[in-house]
Design goal:
Length: 323
Amino acid sequence: MTADRGLDVVDFHLHFRIGADETVHACEEAAGMHPGGAHEREVRAAGSAPYARQWRRAWSFPEPEPPAERWQDEADRWVDELRAARVRRAVFVTGGGNDALADVVDRHPDLLLGLAHHDPCSPDAAVELERAVTERGLRGLKLFAPLLRGPLDHEDLDPLWATAQRLGVPVLIHIGHYGSAGGLPVGRYGGPDELVRMARRFPELAVVVPHFGVQHVQELFFAAWGCPNISIDTSGSNQWVRWMPYRLTLEDLFRRAYETIGPHRIVFGSDSSWFPRGYVTRYLDDQLRVCHELGLPEDHLRAIFAGNAERLLGLTADRKETR
């Protein structure tokens, strides 16, 4: 138990070196996220830079620094951060490829976990997921729906979903705006309607959607109403609420999720991803504060901030064995 917060924390959503993740960059290029050449990219970056600066200033975040020369040093640095924040387990959802991330996890298996994050549109995606889970110990699959090159519910992806369902591992599917300022507002594929059709065809597949679904928050709530296998991950600053055409706050998001899908389908995540910012305790503390202000009972707090992630990742039995 954490001494300062009074409950265990399992963080379902972090990124290891996402800024330098070639597996993610390859999917971006294949999806046509960066049209034009170097000049066009520079123009877009310059136009979006003020929003990024405003966000960092508002949250008192420093400028990101380049990755460490050795991934081992960066992995150790994350572990120091997590221990200082009293986070019991943390899940990296990307990390430079399945084997690279599995090596990170193997370095600190008592604290770190990882998800496979290879190209879901590749012909051998299902085979690679099986290998990543059964041979390298990864605990699920992460994908960015805006980067898909075909529909989320297309039959070509059925073997991938069937494999995840058979293995009993969750699939974390980012829908909505991809990236922060200057990111991809919407993809050709991967919208909420495709998500629902896929989730209904594979009702035993645990599907988790991060960031409350971003601009698709309403559609996500309805999707979860119709598909009991859909859960919501709370990760990030959720600054996207500022861009909605109506007033929306973190408290509103938690209240609506709690009153509709309930506490056992809400999964805490921080979206911590770069240094020197490190582990974003402010996101954790803000979310916990909201839950306390809403009057959530202790067993529901334990579910949201640890128990649901443990169940999705198959950690419940592991924890009982270590008690």
